[in-house]
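G., before I forget:
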Amino acid sequence: MPLLVVRGIKPEQMMVISESLIEDLAVICECELDNFTIECLHTTAVFSGKIVESFPFIEVSWFERGQETRDRFARTVANHVQSLGIKEIEIAFNTYREDSYYVNGSL
Amino acid sequence: MPLLVVRGIKPEQMMVISESLIEDLAVICECELDNFTIECLHTTAVFSGKIVESFPFIEVSWFERGQETRDRFARTVANHVQSLGIKEIEIAFNTYREDSYYVNGSL
Amino acid sequence: MPLLVVRGIKPEQMMVISESLIEDLAVICECELDNFTIECLHTTAVFSGKIVESFPFIEVSWFERGQETRDRFARTVANHVQSLGIKEIEIAFNTYREDSYYVNGSL
């Protein structure tokens, strides 16, 4: 962690920003680059009787780091995504509990 | 938001109900139609050594709106899904925190 | 429920362990085999400018069952996954609220 689960942005687009984005986020989180995961979900969006483009959305799963870090993290993700020419991006944070996160079966 | 993440129901099936479903949910939530997103995940279900059909399941992510609205929302989603001839549908709600939801990098 | 949402492990791999895994988990949870769902998400992981293999990760969604059951559940999942020759596996638990989980539109 942190883990970024992406919808509505293609892997080929995320590839372009992935290196600089993770470098910036590692500074904000004071952790190593290889703690980060970016996963693009394969989805099909539906609206008003039609298949439509998925709205760009990133859900970040991590341990709670407080409002200031979260604000900087979200601003940084949005800036990088918008640098791709994507105008709108929504980001939600999902907090895992430390007593409920296991690496190889251990807390 | 609200966001409906769907498994085990095809996009072609969700297309049939998407317009009337979102109209009904917009009344319940007292919000605009274009606040809603329906995303069908591409998944493969496994059970007892075999690949099986995914069980119909919808996870709703939104801000907390209270039990009464949640009950009406779930009943409405279930009715529309069952109108497709799908007999069983489970629905879980996932609440985002307002201090953790960002539009274009801002709360 | 419980529901296991899998990334970075192929359905063909999960098929191999699905039967014995669910039998063991049903004992731990004291519930029926057919309460369990295993869903493999289709995703594409991105890291450092490239598409990469997804890291093996399972998110378990269920109702809260306490630390001891959670520990046993995680250890059991990890053991089964590692029996496939997968060395590293991370597991996170996501707790649904009982007032927010609907079967066919009813709590």
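The helical segments of chain B are 11-29, 67-82. Chain B is about 35% helix and 30% strand.

More on Monday.
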